[in-house]
């Protein structure tokens, strides 16, 4: 790896000497030990920071500071990381000789270790096939554009995804003897870099040579800035409302901007008069701590005066229900639909692990992002915002999604969420079809209690229908948990990778 970096960036030789510790600095060499003194940890710093003193990071994108403690930087800037806390790290910006230019807080997902695979322009880290398709089919990419990703599925490992004839092909990268990399049995490579170099010059089966690395998009930041990780009550004046995105029973949702430059979704609650502010804050604090790539990030709330605002990340393609019913959704093949179900199961499995219950899981409460990533929204909010409403206005209860014990006895659990997930799978595989189309809410409840279950939708693969029926087991204990649902849905589309 050292040689590769040296070849790629010879101008950073003084830095590579420091990183790889292979040359004693000479007195004439300004890039040697003298300059490095500044990056040595102070006695107040902990010993693990000392051991990290040679970890140099590179910025993959430029970033504009949003708070006085944060650092602005350009793509390619170098950093020495001092401490890591969640998504925000304290780092020193250094020049190529290792001299310190500035110190401050930076978003960790904008940085990659200088000596790592992550620094390769084509390496995308953990990503599913759906997102890879979103990136490769995006503007700026042509035939042959490629990336290597680490599959989200436990048993797959690395996958080479290539844009070819207006679609994306996925090649599993096998590992022979646990070390050599190969996509076809005749050519083995000792590293992914060698594999990529080979297929840039030689054709892949039925695909041609690799072209340019996929154009990178900046990753989302799951906070407005590092400060709002803990301080999530913000003044309304900092938010600008733009067009309305949707309207639900409990809120109107707008596209908006924070401090005029960060895109957000602003949910304006309708029923704040019924809400206990302290309880609301307690719940929001819990929700704020739930972080997962398949859950919507809650950024902030504005509760100084009614109506309350809930600020979340913006999901460009709106609700999964409207997505599936629209032209974009209608083009998705069965493998992609199952993949969406697996993404939801992944987010729900995290909630399950954190002992959190959703209570209103349905396609209308899953949102789709620019890269077709699916995220569960409104988790936990059902209890604080929606429950009084559900109880007082009986008809509004989502009967067709609710487990029998939730309707009859108000018993909500992860297993009642699993029941709803079965209905969500039905919505997905029917491209946004309405469940129990011929029955009223009351009839659905009566029929379910008598043992009736929806028949398999046309074109629904049998294994998927069997999963749905398991989710609709009368006894909550007989239903699968989300962890095993994710594994089952992943392995269904194993062949498609
Ligand atoms: P309610 O909880 O009152 O039913 P929703 O949260 O379902 O309201 O929001 C209504 C609609 O607003 C959704 O169907 C979706 O189209 C849109 N919406 C909600 N949150 C977002 C978001 N974060 N990004 C983009 N659109 C959103």
From TrEMBL:
Gene Ontology molecular function, alphabetical: ATP binding; non-membrane spanning protein tyrosine kinase activity
Location, primary (coarse class): other
Record region (Disordered): 22-51
Enzyme type, top EC level: transferase
Location(s) in or outside the cell: Cell projection, Ruffle; Cytoplasm
Binding positions for ATP per the UniProt entry: 267
A GO CC annotation given for this chain: ruffle
Residue ranges constituting the Protein kinase domain according to the UniProt record: 239-497
SH2 domain residues: 122-214
Protein name, UniProt field: Tyrosine-protein kinase
Organism: Amphiprion ocellaris
């Amino acid at each position: 790896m050292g040689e590769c970096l040296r070849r790629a960036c010879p101008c950073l030789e003084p830095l590579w000497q420091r990183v790889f510790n292979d040359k004693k600095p000479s007195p004439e060499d300004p890039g040697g030990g003298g300059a490095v003194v500044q990056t040595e940890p102070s006695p107040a710093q902990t010993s693990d920071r000392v051991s990290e003193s040679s970890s140099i990071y590179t910025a993959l994108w430029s970033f504009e500071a949003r708070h006085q403690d944060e650092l602005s930087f350009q793509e390619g800037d170098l950093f020495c990381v001092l401490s890591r806390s969640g998504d925000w790290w304290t780092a020193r910006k250094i020049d190529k000789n290792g001299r310190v230019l500035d110190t401050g807080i930076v978003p960790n997902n904008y940085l990659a270790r200088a000596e790592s695979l992550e620094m390769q322009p084509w390496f995308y880290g953990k990503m599913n096939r759906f997102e890879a398709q979103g990136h490769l089919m995006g503007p700026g990419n042509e035939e042959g554009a490629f990336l290597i990703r680490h599959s989200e599925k436990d048993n797959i490992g690395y996958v080479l995804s290539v844009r070819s004839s207006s679609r994306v092909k996925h090649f599993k990268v096998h590992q022979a003897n646990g070390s050599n990399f190969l996509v076809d049995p005749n050519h083995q490579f000792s590293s992914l870099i060698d594999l990529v170099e080979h297929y840039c010059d030689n054709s892949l089966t039925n695909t041609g040579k690799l072209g340019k690395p996929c154009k990178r998009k900046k990753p989302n930041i799951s906070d407005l800035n590092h400060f709002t990780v803990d301080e999530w009550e913000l003044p309304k004046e900092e938010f600008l409302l733009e067009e309305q995105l949707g309207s639900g029973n409990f809120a109107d949702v707008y596209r908006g901007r924070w401090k005029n430059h960060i895109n957000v979704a602003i949910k304006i609650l309708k029923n704040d008069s019924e809400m206990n502010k302290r309880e609301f804050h307690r719940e929001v604090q819990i929700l704020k701590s739930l972080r997962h790539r398949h859950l919507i990030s809650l950024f902030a709330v504005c509760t100084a005066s009614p109506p309350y605002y809930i600020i979340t990340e913006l999901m460009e393609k709106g609700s999964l229900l409207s997505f599936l019913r629209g032209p974009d959704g209608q083009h998705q093949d069965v493998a992609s639909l199952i993949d969406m179900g697996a993404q939801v199961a992944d987010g729900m499995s995290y909630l399950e692990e954190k002992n959190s219950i959703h209570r209103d899981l349905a396609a209308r409460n899953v949102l789709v992002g620019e890269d077709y990533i699916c995220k569960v929204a409104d988790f936990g909010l059902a209890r604080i915002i929606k429950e009084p409403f559900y109880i007082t206005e009986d008809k509004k209860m989502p009967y067709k999604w609710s487990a029998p014990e939730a309707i009859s006895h108000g018993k909500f659990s992860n297993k009642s969420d699993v029941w709803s997930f079965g209905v969500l799978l039905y919505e997905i595989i029917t491209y946004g079809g309405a469940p129990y189309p011929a029955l009223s809410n009351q009839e659905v409840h009566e029929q379910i209690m008598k043992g009736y279950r929806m028949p398999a939708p046309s074109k629904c693969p049998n294994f998927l229908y069997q999963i749905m029926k398991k989710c609709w087991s009368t006894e909550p204990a007989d239903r699968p948990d989300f962890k095993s649902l994710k594994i089952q849905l992943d392995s269904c589309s194993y062949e498609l990778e």
